[in-house]
Write a structure and sequence with these properties.
- This protein is 51% helix and 15% strand.
- By secondary structure, the chain is an alpha+beta fold.
- A hairpin with a 2-residue loop joins strand 7 (420-422) and strand 8.
- The radius of gyration is 27 Å and the shape is globular.
Length: 679
């Protein structure tokens, strides 16, 4: 976990600038300026994160410059570090050549595919999207089979059996295939220069295609899956330090002709594990909210009445998206007038809801009775703009919104940007749009464009403070400024409870959802949080009068317990430098419901099975709360459901890749009971 500072901090900007130019002369000049010998591992980490050293497409000139730069760097540092560390430098820096080869092999292999040989670019593109649609409809049929038995279905434990006989998480599979389709579209766009000046992808208009062409296009999506996997893996190695081993041909029995090497990845890092847990918890919370919403007959009747009066079918989608974002961001998002890429959050929600409504109206009558179906839809720009304007957005804002959700070269995925521009209009795959979580799509799109939500953290601080006050526990917000260089101390929430003083620092940040670069940046922010909280704790030691002033009376306490509280469900089941990292849902759940239990999708919440008691007595205590901070039950339960599965892939014809990925094991009630008893 990257959280606490590790030795001397090396300034990065100058080093990054030199690396971007692949110039050893500039890099040496920067290294001569800084005391990098105090933290050579930190220097290695900076170099590994340099995107300019990766070549996703063969570039002999860049590869030669990188090779020369690494050779000069190795020669430069070797007199100043020990043999083991020099060996580590060589091992890690050698990964750039490994990654380049993997990308090159994917592209070389793609050139051998029948789809590229036999199909025109336009035919190949539409055949690939059709293959995706047929694959997803097969998945939905498998899901439907799970609800035809008498056995109740546990929320978030649904799996289907894949062709290999291995249980598959349908949500994870769908996400993986959507990612692969996005990669396939981008690879085709780069190959044929299908980009407009704004960077949006523009594919040819729809063509009639045959079953044979669809069959051939399946190989394109497979190859795109490998490309996406290699891209993710190389970022995990470079940003998160995931271990890797290169296996030479002589280490394999009867390797094929032309075989170059094998690449074996170590297990997921702790940073990946806690990010995966956070994503699982967030999905679980969204599922629970969805089913709670479905079971709230009074609210649904009200929304149905509004839909009938307004003539709009998007009322429920709008309510769920606005409610979810308000909960996640801890303030009323519909009251936020800040413009994010030219639109308020309300505009973003309106736009996604109305586009979803429009596309639902285009689905064939035969498919409307099914809970989920995949269809490839096309429509004109004039029609979609008119429909978006029907929700009240101006012509200018409608145009901005449509452009913002059009797939482009830097789009995170097709969930954020589901519209695919064609020569004369747009295409969309219905289940990608209908199955996306609007609140996530809005936030991810805004954050992907470097936006930042406002007001940041204010609502979270108020909510945390109110939780304690509502349970008769003293809590206060306080700030005081001292002369420089000491400066201002700002305490989000101070809690005085049974002789313990809690210093709670609130942070409203979005989840990383598996993206290695985002995970790295998140943990970098955690490191900054540590520094901030440590300073706040030291301030109370230097100025004990601040506690008296915060609570308006003389107070005494035996210990100070610092804690960072996240707005979204990202908690760590360990202290880092004496600081707890928890989240608002852990705190809320601790006070609101004494018992943990298993809840079914088709039964009332009151019918859940009790599995764990959070409190030692009838009321919560400090010791109970610290136990929840030290080992949050939500994290422990989710972590106990995790497992990893080893997979082997052929990267092109010349590279073997062995890796593993995390997944949540399907559990029944007895499994949950066993997990809870072990905590």
């Amino acid at each position: 976990m990257l959280a606490s500072r590790n030795g001397f901090e090396i300034p990065e900007s100058g080093i990054n600038n030199a690396l971007s130019k692949l110039s050893w002369k500039l890099l040496k000049k920067e290294l001569d300026k800084v005391a990098w010998k105090k933290n050579p591992r930190g220097l290695l980490d900076i170099i590994m994160r340099a995107d300019s050293l990766i070549n996703k497409r063969t570039n002999a000139e860049k590869a030669k410059k990188r090779q020369d730069l690494i050779a000069e760097l190795t020669l430069y540092i070797s007199p100043s570090i020990d043999e083991e560390l020099l060996k580590l430098f060589k091992h890690k820096l050698g990964f750039f050549e490994i990654a380049d080869t993997c990308f090159s092999e994917v592209l070389s292999f793609e050139g051998e595919l029948d789809a590229l040989k036999d199909l025109s670019p336009a035919k190949r593109m539409w055949s690939t999207m059709t293959w995706f649609v047929e694959d997803q409809n097969h998945l939905y049929e498998k899901i439907a089979e799970q609800f035809t038995t008498d056995k109740p279905v546990l929320i978030n434990s649904l799996t289907v059996t894949g062709e290999s006989g291995v249980p598959v998480d349908p949500s994870a599979y769908h996400t993986q295939q959507v990612d692969a389709l996005g990669s396939a579209i981008l690879m085709e766009a780069y190959r044929n220069n299908w980009f407009c000046p704004k960077g949006n992808v523009i594919i040819p208009d729809r063509l009639d295609i045959t079953d044979t062409e669809v069959f051939k296009a399946g190989s394109v999506l497979y190859n795109a899956n490998i490309w996406a996997l290699v891209d993710t893996v190389q970022e995990q190695v470079r940003y998160l330090g995931r271990a890797h081993t290169r296996r030479e041909p002589n280490e394999f029995e009867s390797p094929p002709e032309g075989f170059k090497f094998g690449l074996e990845l170590g297990g997921p890092t702790s940073a990946q594990i806690f990010d995966f847990i956070a994503s699982q918890r967030n999905t679980s919370r969204e599922s629970s909210n969805f089913f709670s919403f479905k079971k709230d007959s009074k609210l649904n009747k009200l929304l149905d009445a509004v839909s009938k009066v307004s003539g709009s079918t998007r009322v429920k989608d709008h309510y769920q998206a606005a409610s979810s974002l308000s909960t996640l961001l801890n303030y009323e998002v519909l009251e936020d007038e800040t413009l994010y890429e030219g639109l308020t959050i309300g505009d973003w929600i309106d736009g996604f809801c109305v586009v979803r409504e429009y596309c639902a109206s285009l689905i064939s009558a035969d498919s409307r009775s099914k809970p989920m179906v995949s269809e490839l839809l096309t429509f004109t720009q004039a029609d979609i703009e008119a429909h978006v304007q029907s929700c009240g957005l101006s012509k200018e804002k409608s145009s901005i919104f449509i452009n913002n959700i059009t797939f482009h070269r830097k789009a995170r995925d097709l969930f954020d940007a589901p519209l695919i521009r064609t020569s004369s209009g747009f295409a969309v795959i219905s289940d990608i749009l209908r199955g996306s979580v609007i609140s996530r799509a809005v936030a991810s799109n805004i954050l992907g464009r470097k936006g930042e939500f406002k007001p940041k953290g204010d609502g979270l601080e108020a909510e945390v403070k109110e939780i304690f006050l509502s349970h008769g526990i003293e809590a206060a917000t306080y700030e005081k400024k001292y002369p420089e260089p000491e400066g201002k101390y700002q305490y989000d929430v101070l809690v005085l409870w049974e002789g313990s003083l809690f210093v709670l620092e609130c942070k409203n940040r979005w989840l990383c959802e598996g993206r290695p670069v985002a995970i790295y940046n998140y943990l970098k922010q955690c490191r900054e949080d540590l520094d901030q909280v440590s300073r706040l704790v030291n301030g109370l030691t230097l100025h004990p009068e601040m506690v008296r002033e915060a609570f308006g009376r003389e107070v005494s306490y035996n210990e100070i317990i610092p804690c960072v509280v996240a707005g979204l469900p990202h908690a760590i089941s360990e202290q880092i430098s004496g600081v707890y990292f928890t989240d608002i849902s852990v705190i809320t759940r601790f006070f609101s419901d004494r018992f943990f239990g298993a809840e079914y999708a088709d039964r009332p919440k009151e019918k859940k099975h009790i599995l764990y008691d959070q409190w030692e007595t009838d009321t919560p205590s400090v010791s109970d709360f610290i136990k929840a901070l030290r080992n949050p039950r939500q994290v422990a339960i989710t972590r106990a459901t995790l497992d990893s599965r080893t997979v082997e892939h052929s990267v092109g014809r010349a590279v073997y890749l062995k890796s593993s990925y995390l997944y949540a094991k399907p559990l029944d009630l007895d499994d949950y009971r066993t997990i809870m008893q072990s905590l």
